[in-house]
Structures are given as C-alpha cells and as structure tokens.
User: Fold this.
Amino acid sequence: MKSHEFRPSHLVAGVVCLAVAVTYLLDASGLWQVPTVVGGNVFLLGMVAAAVTGTVHRSLRRRARDAD
Assistant:
C-alpha cells in the first residue's frame, strides 16, 4: 500500500467538521441549546485555522527541501 504524506490541515478540517456535526446533533436531540450562528462561526474559524495550518506546513516543507 502506498504511503501518503501527512497533511495537518486535513486533520484540523476534519476535527472541526466533526465538532460542528456533534454540536448540531446534540442541538437536534435537545441535549444542548446552541444558536445557529455559533456553529457557522466555529466552522468558518476552523476552516481559517486549517488554511493557516496548511500554509505553515507547506512553508516548513519548502524550507526543509531547500536546505537539502
């Protein structure tokens, strides 16, 4: 099986999506009352965090490649 490179931005995006999904699931079941705006804001901020993580990871990989 071919090995894939680790991409931390995909991990961050996945965790954020799971957190938003669990939040809406708890809200739909009536266990937790969350305003809709909160879920949207958390999602958007999480995607920004994933983009920043990806940019930092790419620049570090490029710097390491150029050092070799």
